[in-house]
């Protein structure tokens, strides 16, 4: 396959070609299924007290909806049996989210498990009775709190930060007291959920810290009264050093700095490195409090899943099978253990369909599921959520993670449910070829491509072996034909099982980019004028578009910076631009990308809208009428305080 492209369409097609490769990559591999036993190499020296947690916050709503769960022999489990099975599978802790008041004035619940404190109490009691420890995850909102949404509970609206802190103390104290009153023991409490950019409606750190501190004080008080050790945790969707610095600056009392880690969006080495720094600099304990991985790309309940075959930008590093889930979890645990972190939690392993969709005539079941989600709150949001969260009201529905559960769509445990136990003991299973690792190459037009002589083959136990590959000569000659575009080169690999497997690599042939370090992979070439230290060239996997680095900006002061590069161009017509994403810039902020040729300015104005929504400011028809003309490529930002985002993949091409 090859395609001649204009420079304008290249990024779009590059993305789709790459994702096509991921999925054909899975298809050519010998993929194991849900029934295949999983192979797990033990994590050596993993302490017996390493926390291996599961967040089953939707459990009560699921059971109210008629969902059944089974043991490995096919017997239906009662409530206590469900939690005992989790324990038998190596789980140590159960995480439970709490919304303050997730219902409207009519008493209609918002969904997402309808997790008020009453619902949380039921789950916590079952966990305690099954011999599991409990982590309570206070959102301090009436519905989901995340990096974009930290709305204060309805009852706290209009309050000052000091008043909210008082309300936080009371809510935390009363909630925890009511848990202990029914015999549910709480061992760990999270003050806030994914509180990257705020807490209970407060964005300013001085105010946020007051709420954090009040929550912490309530937890310490309850621990004293109950004579029971309770650890205090904070949680961010991805870890950044600045938050640990702010917590330290305002002397917030806490024990554990926790992060999420999702393999599709985050880079494990980044998460590991920041957690390690927090541990070393501030002496805090660290853990990953949310992770998960897909066992299929199918949807089980009629509500689209977060990760599906349509989600083309998300990388599937592991097989999309229970074995892949096991490999993904093992790698997180191994890495957290290596930095002496205390644990890992899996997010919502039991949020399966309320009724599994049949192969045919799905519509009737989807309609029935919609009614069940509304009635019992077993979907991520119900219509009633609209008053508190308009977006949730618009997109309300079922489970977006039924394909990331550790149960199948009908409630039977997958082999991956045993992963926590196997991390200590290991588990043997026949090993097979999982896939031939895909490769990507980018070359400049006119340069010849040297393809590797060997291809890496990955096995289901994550071992990698390299075998000689025979590349298709016709595909190779297409790449070297001098055309621009994206090319897929196929080849054949013979593995040690005697079978032939298809190898593939994607080769992108680009016209010459006149910028040095266009993707900020190094600092050379760029000049930064920035008085407030709001911008920098850094590795930041959450915000980049390609490679390992990007030009990241953020400040709690107004941002004013210019990043520029001088380039010599020969006579011709050029196009210049790049990519930008970010948020919290309001309407008055200015983002300009352009080129200065003598006294003539070519400028493109742009703005940021939301995370990973890439804008592409571009100027074209830049006329250079003399060889060796020096021009200046520039990025200028004047933005309000709190603005954040990143530039990546800047360019100047000849037309
Ligand atoms: Ca679904």
3D architecture notes:
Helix 7 links the parallel strand 6 (231-236) and strand 7 (256-260). The chain is 25% helix and 26% strand. It has 655 residues and is of the alpha/beta class. The protein has helices at residues 10-28, 59-64, 79-88, 117-129, 161-181, 205-226, 241-249, 268-282, 322-338, 362-376, 390-395, 419-425, 473-479, and strands spanning 2-3, 51-55, 93-98, 133-138, 188-191, 231-236, 256-260, 285-290, 343-347, 433-436, 439-444, 454-459, 464-471, 485-494, 500-510, 527-530, 535-539, 549-554, 559-569, 572-583, 590-597, 600-606, 618-624, 629-639, 644-654. The protein folds into 3 domains: 1-31 and 432-511, Immunoglobulin-like; 50-352 and 392-425, Glycosidases (TIM Barrel, Alpha-Beta Barrel), CATH 3.20.20; 527-654, Sandwich (Jelly Rolls). Mean pLDDT is 91; it is low at 1-32. It has an 8-stranded parallel beta barrel, surrounded by 4 helices. Strands 1, 10, 11, 12, 13, 14 and 15 form a 7-stranded mixed sheet that branches. It has a 5-stranded antiparallel sheet with strand order 16-19-24-21-22, with no helix packed on it. The two termini are 25 Å apart. It binds calcium ion. Residues 299-301, 303, 305, 398-400, 402 line the site of calcium ion.
Question: Into which percentage range does the β-strand content fall?
Answer: 25-35%
How many domains is the backbone divided into? 3
Mean pLDDT: 91
Number of helices: 13
Helix content: 25-40%
Cofactors, ions and other ligands in the entry = calcium ion
What's the CATH class label of the largest domain? Alpha Beta
Distance between the termini: 25 Å
What's the Cα radius of gyration? 26 Å
Low-confidence stretches: 1-32
- Structural class given helices, strands, pairing? alpha/beta
> What's the CATH H-level superfamily name of the largest domain?
Glycosidases
Using the alpha-carbon principal axes, give the shape. Answer: globular
């Amino acid at each position: 396959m090859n395609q001649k492209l204009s420079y304008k369409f290249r990024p779009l097609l590059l993305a789709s070609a790459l994702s096509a490769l991921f999925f054909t990559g899975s298809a050519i591999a010998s993929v194991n299924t849900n029934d295949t036993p999983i192979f797990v190499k033990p994590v050596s020296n993993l302490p017996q007290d390493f926390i291996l947690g599961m967040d089953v916050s939707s459990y009560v709503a699921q059971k109210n909806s008629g969902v059944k769960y089974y043991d490995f022999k096919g017997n239906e489990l009662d409530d206590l049996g469900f939690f005992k099975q989790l324990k038998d599978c190596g789980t140590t802790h159960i995480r439970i989210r709490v919304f303050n008041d997730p219902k409207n004035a009519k008493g209609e619940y918002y969904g997402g498990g309808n997790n008020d404190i009453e619902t949380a109490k039921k789950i916590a009691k079952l966990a305690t009775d099954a011999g599991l420890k409990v982590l309570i995850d206070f959102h301090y909102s009436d519905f989901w709190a995340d990096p974009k949404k930290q709305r204060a509970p309805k009852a706290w609206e209009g309050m000052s930060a000091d008043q909210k802190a008082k309300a936080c103390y009371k809510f935390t104290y009363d909630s925890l007291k009511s848990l202990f009153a029914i015999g549910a023991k709480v061992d760990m409490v999270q003050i806030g959920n994914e509180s990257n950019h705020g807490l209970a409606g407060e964005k300013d750190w001085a105010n946020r810290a007051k709420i954090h501190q009040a929550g912490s004080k309530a937890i310490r008080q309850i621990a004293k009264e109950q004579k029971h050790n309770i650890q205090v945790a904070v949680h961010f969707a991805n870890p950044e050093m600045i938050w640990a610095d702010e917590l330290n600056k305002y002397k917030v009392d806490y024990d554990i700095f926790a992060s999420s880690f999702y393999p599709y969006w985050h880079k494990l080495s980044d998460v590991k490195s920041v957690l390690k720094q927090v541990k070393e600099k501030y002496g805090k304990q660290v853990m990953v409090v949310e992770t998960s991985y897909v066992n299929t790309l199918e949807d089980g309940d009629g509500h689209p899943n977060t990760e599906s075959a349509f989600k083309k930008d998300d990388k599937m590093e592991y097989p999309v099978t229970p074995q892949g889930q096991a490999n993904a979890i093992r790698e997180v645990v191994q890495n957290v253990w290596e930095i002496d972190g205390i644990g890992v939690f899996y997010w919502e392993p039991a949020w399966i369909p309320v009724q599994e969709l049949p192969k045919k005539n799905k519509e009737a079941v989807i309609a029935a599921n919609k009614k069940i989600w509304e009635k019992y709150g077993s979907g991520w949001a119900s219509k009633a959520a609209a008053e508190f969260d308009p977006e949730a009201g618009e997109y309300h529905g079922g489970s977006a993670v039924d394909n990331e559960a550790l149960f199948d769509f009908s409630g039977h445990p997958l082999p991956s449910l045993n992963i926590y136990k196997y991390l200590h003991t290991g588990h043997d299973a026949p090993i097979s070829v999982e896939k031939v690792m895909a490769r990507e190459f980018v070359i400049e037009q006119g340069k010849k491509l040297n393809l590797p002589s060997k291809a890496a083959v990955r096995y289901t136990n994550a071992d990698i072996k390299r075998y000689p590959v025979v590349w298709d000569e016709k595909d190779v000659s297409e790449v070297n034909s001098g055309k621009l575009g994206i090319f897929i080169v196929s080849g054949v690999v013979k593995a040690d099982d005697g079978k032939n497997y298809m190898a593939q690599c994607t080769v992108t042939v680009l016209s010459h980019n006149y910028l040095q370090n266009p993707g900020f992979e190094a600092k050379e070439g760029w000049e930064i004028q920035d008085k407030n230290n709001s911008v920098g060239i850094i590795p930041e996997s959450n915000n980049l578009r390609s490679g390992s680095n990007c030009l990241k900006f953020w400040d709690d002061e107004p941002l004013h910076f210019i990043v520029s590069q001088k380039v010599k161009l020969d006579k011709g017509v050029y196009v210049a631009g790049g990519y930008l994403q970010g948020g919290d810039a309001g309407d008055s902020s200015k983002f300009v990308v352009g080129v200065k040729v003598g006294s003539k300015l070519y400028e493109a104005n742009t703005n940021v809208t939301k995370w990973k929504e890439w804008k592409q400011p571009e100027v074209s028809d830049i006329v250079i009428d003399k060889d060796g003309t020096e021009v200046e490529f520039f990025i200028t930002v004047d933005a309000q305080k709190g603005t954040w985002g990143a530039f990546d993949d800047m360019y100047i091409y000849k037309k």
